[in-house]
Design brief:
With 253 residues, the chain is an alpha/beta fold. 45% of the residues lie in helices and 15% in strands. It has one domain: NAD(P)-binding Rossmann-like Domain (Rossmann fold, 3-Layer(aba) Sandwich). The protein has a 7-stranded parallel beta sheet with strand order 3-2-1-4-5-6-7, sandwiched between helices. The protein starts with 11 loop residues before the first strand and ends in a 7-residue tail after the last strand. The relative contact order is 0.14. The protein binds NADP nicotinamide-adenine-dinucleotide phosphate.
Length: 253
């Protein structure tokens, strides 16, 4: 258990994609903070395993695909029925399917990547903001990627979606500021989760990647969770519309 605290005790926090990876680690720290946590993912078995892993704590799991408006509506209805408010939304869901050049990408694949990353973030933020506006308080934190800041090979559509998510963060921040809602994002470089295992799981590639990181190692999920929780808590009340890069210094050299 970490001794760092973010003042989230009793807060209702929705973590999308909370069944594994960065989302699951975020939920774990929120349980330690004694927050009321709602996680979502598409697969019920992953959610069941996550709830068992998180152990005793105020955790609710709801199966929902974030890019499907009816399922997003059902997710937020479940949050409101159970808790009557929503203090923090963490838009953590993200996916990538390796594409070739963007101009060679099948439009169906383009839609799938844009839908899950960008439209899902829009739909969840929209629904959470409706409640937060009534409350005159709230925090939205979105997980972007450094892939949204440079044209990485085979990750073009994903990078375009992440860049748009950072712009969505700025637009929502400007639109929701007068309702006392802060909207921010984090942009990690590679994090050691299942999502990126094809890269860091290859020892030669792993060593090549680490050489480019001033802090000398790849990120673990917890390295991203702390910045997320900082942006979810009161310590960041005067920060909005920003994306915090979490990359061990990789993009400064
Ligand atoms: N890992 C990295 O190297 C890295 C680097 C930079 C940024 N990121 C970003 O960090 C975030 C988390 O990544 P991660 O590595 O923790 O991913 P992960 O290990 O693949 O976990 C993804 C989570 O999202 C859920 N999910 C996927 N599609 C969904 C959908 N359409 N609706 C609802 N839930 C969905 C998954 O559960 P189901 O499969 O059951 O739906 C799972 O819980 C993503 O936004 C990713 O882009 C990751």
């Amino acid at each position: 258990m970490s001794d760092i605290r973010y003042g989230l005790e009793g807060k209702v926090v929705v973590v999308t994609g909370g069944s594994r990876g960065i989302g699951l680690e975020t939920a774990r720290r929120l349980v330690e903070e004694r927050a009321k946590v709602v996680i979502c993912a598409r697969k019920q078995e992953g959610l069941d395993a996550a709830v068992a892993d998180l152990g005793a704590g105020n955790v609710t799991a709801v199966a929902a695909h974030v890019a499907k408006p009816d399922q997003v509506e059902a997710l937020f209805k479940a949050v409101m029925d159970r808790h009557g408010r929503i203090d923090v939304l963490i838009n953590n869901v993200g996916m990538n399917i390796m594409t070739g050049a963007v101009v060679d990408t099948d439009p169906g694949l383009w839609n799938k990547i844009i839908d899950t990353n960008l439209t899902g973030t829009f739909l969840c933020s929209r629904r959470a903001a409706q409640e937060m506006r009534r409350q005159k308080a709230g925090k939205i934190v979105t997980v972007s990627s450094v892939a949204g800041r440079r044209a990485a090979p085979a990750m073009g559509v994903y990078g375009i979606a992440k860049a748009a998510m950072e712009m969505l963060t700025k637009v929502l921040a400007a639109e929701l500021a007068s309702d006392n809602i802060q909207v921010n994002a984090v942009a990690p470089a590679m994090v050691k989760t299942d999502f990126s295992k094809p890269f860091w799981g290859n020892p030669a590639l792993h060593d090549e990647l680490v050489k480019k990181i001033p802090l000398g190692r790849l990120a673990e999920s917890i390295d991203v969770v702390h910045p997320i929780l900082f942006l979810a808590g009161r310590a960041s009340d005067y920060i909005t519309g920003q994306t915090l890069v979490v990359d061990g210094g990789a993009t400064v050299v």
